[in-house]
Amino acid sequence: MEHKFSPLPTSDSESSQPSVQESDQLCGLGRFKPQWLQKFADPKVYLVIFCLVGVLQGAYFTYFVGVLSTLEKRFAFESKISGVILIADNISATFISLVVGYYGGKGHKPRMIAMGMVIVLLSCFLSTIPYFIYGPALHFLSRDIVSVSNRKQEYCDTEFPDENCQSGLNSSSLTAISILFVANFMNGFGYTAYYTIGAPYLDDNVKKKNSPMYFSAMAALRIFGPTLGFLLSSFCLKFYEDPFYDPGIDSRNPRWVGAWWMGFFILGIALLFFTFLLALFPRELPARFRSEKKNVKKEDSKEADMPKLKDFPKSVKKLMKNPILVCHVISITFQVNGFAGYFVFMPKFMESQYHQSASDASLFSGATGIISMLLGILIGGFLIKKYKPRPKYLTGYMVLVEVFSVIGLLVSIFLGCSQIQMPGTTLNPDKSLSLYNECNAGCSCTRRVFEPVCGSDGVSTFFSPCFAGCPNTTGLNFPPVTAVPTTAMNTTIFHDCKCIASLNSTLSDFNSTYTSSFVTSGFCATGCTMFMVYIIVLCVSKFISSTARVGNTLITFRCVDAEDKSFALGAFGSILSLFAFIPYPLIYGALTDSACLVWEESCSQTGNCWLYDSDKFRYYLHGMSMLLISIGICFDIVVFFLSDRLKNFYGEEDEEEEKTSVDRLARWIKEEEEEDIIFTKCPRTDPNLEMDPII
């Protein structure tokens, strides 16, 4: 049997020069690829860095959501304008997702992601610019912007004009809105590469049977992003917009404007560091981590691997002829509309429904459910990895989880608080609330500042001391007692209020100075205990729904060919941006505005909403989410019936091929050993014996 041997290199230069393929598997930038850095070319290290970048990028969006009501208040714009700002990043993503997905599949994925994240950190810094241009909102602390230190409340007084319209507030609002829109638009360009080619890079560099655990860990780690955004907004909003200025009010006062700009700056600095680490990863990880072996020809080049523009229509047609992918994308589109719209406007819902401060609303929106979601994702990924359920069982479970989410929303409709009572108000034809009546007609009251006060009966709420007809304030502060039913931590009494009935007998023990009609600062205590029940229902729903997240990701990756994953995600991203991420802020913004009772008004122009119809807001928010998610469930049922078409779901074919190759190699070794044994046992010729003559 003939054995062939490969010649060893004869020169040091030939052995030291890595091939093109080996160079693509080295960590570093340019010529900086030291040996000590190569031990980090590992999918687990990539997973950690990739998720940390994702945490910060995801925190940008939820941080913006957490400070959204503060921005509306600070720059006096409606929720519909907030919706326009929110869709800015999806407008840019719509155009670039297809391009990044089509060409990014063959490019240097980590560096493309890093380049995008540089744009994201620039958008973070740009978002802080309105504060440095216009400074803190001191005009909320006084009716007259000039005399900030003289008056801290608006009360009934005919000596002051209605408002100063020379302050330039409207122009500042337009400029701030434009800057925030541009910042979000840039963010869309930046994060597209992260979501389009980041996960396929990991999926291409690990064994398919290990993908569920990697995706589970990825989703679990990235879940801290939205949570971090809400927690960061809660932390920053506890400080006044100018952290070195004492406004004389606390964060529960509706006139409080938190330091919304600080978080953008913090996120930008953190992104700068982790983006650099991500850029150090190679084009592809070493082959030992993959189950699929790549056939690399000697004449292949990076340029030859790049897809051709003329093949673009053919690739689109191939995806459109995939019924599982089409139904899955339509289902996710409707569900994103429902879930995203609900969670984006949930902090505002908590503020209006349960009278939470902007800081507390952000805290509960982010912190509640993080442990339940984390456990749900990890448990879901572990069970898929362990039991490898058939695609039909997996898609069927996803349908059940979505049905449970709809039930959770239905239950939440009945967990509201009663509407606040505002006597002396009338409903306008446009369903808004008129605050003006005979007793406050001569008070020159405005709707520019919202400072709720509670009447002495503990039930009646007024928009401000001015609308209650209160001529002045005593300045007396004291902790709330049963005689003063208010939710404020420190209460101020306004007395001699024309719109209030005679003094409540419960305050008879107080000084005779307070024997006239009075109100106390803050909302009246409603006694509503539904908030914690609502939080519990929210946590349970998040836990159950999160167990299906890994399965959703696997369906997306396994219903297309391996070489089409990046392009499929790019097309997926464009469709979601166009039909989900762009519509839902507009839909839910319009619904939220339609539930408004009292609008901010300055210089005869309306701004943000001060007060909502709590019942209408609750019905609209939950009802629309239930409708959209239910439509998505219908398409997931179609995916359930088509799921038998999904093959090689956990890399069974690769494992079978690998097993066959190992068996073939084992048989070859065994045959070689048998030949050697036969050769060694063959009888040798005795040299002492005479040779037979040749005939």
Overview of the molecule:
- With about 700 residues, this protein is mainly α.
- It is built from 25 helices and nine strands.
- The chain has helices at about 10-15, 20-25, 45-65, 70-75, 80-85, 90-105, 110-125, 130-135, 170-205, 210-220, 225-235, 260-280, 300-305, 310-320, 325-345, 345-355, 360-365, 370-385, 390-415, 530-545, 550-560, 565-580, 585-595, 615-640, 650-680; strands at about 425, 435, 455, 460, 475-480, 490-495, 520, 595-600, 605-610.
- The strands form three sheets. It has a five-stranded antiparallel sheet with strand order 4-3-7-6-5, with no helix packed on it. Strands 1-2 form a two-stranded antiparallel sheet.
- Strand 8 and strand 9 (about 605-610) form a beta hairpin.
- Helix 10 packs antiparallel against helix 18 (about 370-385), helix 11 (about 225-235) runs antiparallel to helix 17 (about 360-365) and helix 15 runs antiparallel to helix 24 (about 615-640).
- The two termini are about 30 Å apart.
Topology:
Layout: H1 12-16, H2 20-23, H3 43-66, H4 68-75, H5 79-86, H6 88-104, H7 109-127, H8 129-134, H9 169-204, H10 211-222, H11 224-237, H12 262-279, H13 302-305, H14 312-320, H15 323-344, H16 346-354, H17 358-367, H18 370-387, H19 391-413, E1 426-427, E2 433-434, E3 453-455, E4 461-462, E5 477-478, E6 491-495, E7 518-521, H20 530-546, H21 549-558, H22 565-581, H23 583-594, E8 596-602, E9 605-612, H24 614-642, H25 652-681
**How much is the average pLDDT?**
75
Q: What overall geometry do the principal axes of the alpha carbons give?
A: elongated
**Helix proportion of residues, in percent?**
40-55%
Total of DSSP H or I helical runs spanning 4+ residues: 25
Strand content: 5-15%
**Largest sheet strand order:** 4-3-7-6-5
